[in-house]
């Protein structure tokens, strides 16, 4: 008999339960960070224009995640709450609906990106033809085959909702190894192999994502454990309309938040592009480096999301309170550690990705300023996970959209001062600090009402 992979998140020691679920997710997040950093490190050998082009094309990959998060968040929360109530039939319906929506969104997004690649990239006002060409080819490959990224995102959420975070970790580990092998081969073309440069990086990423998808699908049917909800779903069966409505109700605000967040970042990237390809490359690479904290916090938040949702379904509100407090201490400590890393070693980190002295100088300034808000960023991500598990996605979206949107006018004001380009970096940090504080206070208010009940 195989070892049970699903965890009951409504019973047992809180820290042990959270750690057992969160550690594989955090490890998967580290792998996602390594994914991105590996790509950027190899692309960095091609110069700042290649990095900037990949960054621009990659913005639409990021934008696509907002759409997919509707199915992922709505499916994950509803599935976890159904598991907490012991309602297996509803759990199967929510899983089926989430995957159906994911496939539909992937086809629609890919079609739009392939049909309108040039107009979409023209938004950034790229004056350099080579940078535009890099962005064009990267976007066509990664967005055209976005279905694998979408499936991985949703399947990870559905696995986690059941308390199984180990299978997604194994899948991502295999994908990372493949990506690290393919990157230098396809980007640089050693020996007789063709040098594909940016196209090679995109192909390596898509192949790795495809492998992750295959491993997670195979994982559904491995072993004798019949408790995986995904094994019991009928993908093309008719699902009650109420399931789609509930998924859209919970996942819709998250999708809107993610989409608007990316669009705001795209506006800021357009502002950054006025300072040249080196500034754009700094912003994009800096964002990938910052994902050391962002992805880790998001990974822990995913675990807390499922923990909160299952316990909310089981009406164990005190357990939700205790789980959030324990998670908060861990994530704040991690954020402080990342801040120290960014502030104390900015030049060493920047030199891994850039080789032009002027770009390294720009990157050093970015790392120091952005680093100051990492602990607050971790609080924001963690709290969004907890509130979303309670179904409070609308509250999360309102706070996030308002404060993230404030980055644009703040950046416009600060760039007109002596700060120049660094004014944009300060706008990012100030808003991150504000969001961390506001989200913490919002959860305290919600938490007080839960504990009373």
Q: Can you offer a commentary on this structure?
A:
With 453 residues, the protein is mostly helical. It has one domain. It has 18 helices and no strands. The mean pLDDT is 88.
Name the descriptors.
453 residues; mainly alpha; 18 helices; globular
Layout of helices and strands:
Elements (H helix, E strand, L loop, with lengths): L13 H31 L3 H38 L2 H28 L1 H6 L6 H16 L2 H15 L4 H23 L9 H24 L7 H4 L8 H33 L3 H37 L3 H28 L1 H8 L3 H15 L2 H16 L3 H13 L1 H9 L6 H31 L1
Helix pairs in contact: 1-7, 1-11, 2-3, 2-5, 2-6, 2-10, 2-11, 3-5, 3-6, 5-8, 6-8, 7-8, 10-16, 11-12, 11-14, 11-15, 12-14, 12-15, 13-14, 14-18, 15-18, 16-18, 17-18
Bulk shape: globular
Percent helix range: over 70%
Report the mean per-residue pLDDT as an integer.
88
Distance between the ends: 41 Å
Strand count, sense and closure of the main sheet? none
Give the ordered list of helices and strands. HHHHHHHHHHHHHHHHHH
Return the domain count. Answer: 1
Give the helix tally: 18
Q: Outline the low-pLDDT stretches.
A: none
The chain-level structural class is mainly alpha
Task: Please provide the count of β strands.
Answer: 0
Radius of gyration: 21 Å
Beta-strand share of residues: under 5%
